[in-house]
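Supplementary Data S3. Sequence and structure tokens for construct A.
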Amino acid sequence: MKKKVLQLEKLEMGASMLRAMAHPMRIAIIELLTATKRLSVTEIYEKLSIEQASASHHLNILKNKGVLESKREGKMIFYSLKHDKLTEIINSLDRCMEL
């Protein structure tokens, strides 16, 4: 019985991550980090041409759901994907768009 409980917990966690990713701007952030591996908040909002507050909002959601991790270096905060496997989800989405 414990195996099923653990499996259900993993599925809930995965669903939570997918819900967090299910926003066009968050997908764009993940695509940027897939290509660049590590970016500062400033680099992210400049590359996406959005406000700093908006970038921070989306980054916090992704970080809180376990999609991204952050590292502070002085006054700068750098973000990267927490799991390299997330790039496979983005690649799958890209392939679906080609259809």
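Construct B, processed identically:
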Amino acid sequence: MSVIEAKGISLNRKGHRILNIFNLRIDEGEVVSLIGPNGAGKTSLLMILSCLFRNFSGKILFRGLEVEKDITAFEYRRKISMVFQEPLLFNTTVFENVASGLKFRRFNKRECRRIVYEHLERFGIIHLSTRLARTLSGGEAQRVSLARAFAIRPHIIFLDEPFSSLDKPTKDALMEDLERNIRDLKITAIFATHDRDEALRMSERIIVLNQGEIVQDGSPEEVMNHPCNEFVASFSGMETIISGTVVKNEGGIITISASGVYIDAVGDVAPTRKVILCIKPEDIVLYPVSHKLKSSARNTFTGTITRVVPSGFYQKIYLNCGIPLVAYITNSSAKALEISEGINIMASFKATSVHVIRQ
């Protein structure tokens, strides 16, 4: 059963269209990520779905009931929770903050106390119950926001980039607790983020937004490995994106000419068709020019390293092989290969590693 549907949603500001969503349906118990760059419309869509924006066209349905027609916005909002990027806490104790939603719903004191302490424990902040909200760190304050949001046992919880201002260790620990509580309490969650790693970790379904429209909707595997267009490919981590023309189609293997370089890929596209080729950096293998690598990879090129970018535990290597390629390599491998700008190196990747998008 769908818990929430959005139909014909349109939002305009000062003559500019912010959102144009034809149909969006979230089913019971789903954990869905809305991803996209800044300005894609993620927050605006969450605000509309939670009825915090009212000046829009279209319909919001909650369990088949149209909000503002079959059910009031007030009744609907009592069944949902929202957690913002910056914690919005009352200037009182942690206990009182977590209890606030329950008090608004007229829970008796005994039941309220039981539920508050249950959720303080769920988010690891029971020791902070008497602390004033203004004395908390950013991570502690966000834990209080989550405990308060979960305490009312909402039908849907909306999360608007709740980890963006946190350091990595704090974010990782908080994400682990959030994942566990969503799973344990079987709450439907809609999570907005511009971080694809957060989306991959948190959700079972990803909706990609760009310029206010849904451009792809599917499982994490579909979106990340089978992007529908060049924008999604770039956003999903396909660092190498090349335009070309199919010149041959034989037995499920197509050959594409890109700037005079021939690339083999798995697919069924007729010759003369224009295509976009997308390759993940982790699928490209680098090795010395002098080394004869025994590999099943159909695509092998000699290239020159044009740029080396350190990225934590690995390095991002930019190559010119007649076509531009981007590869990831571990720091230890980079040291062994004596990686540096200007040296020649071999690069290879399998035909199955090339994602083909018809133009």
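The mean pLDDT is 92. Residues 92 and 132 are 5 Å apart (CA to CA).
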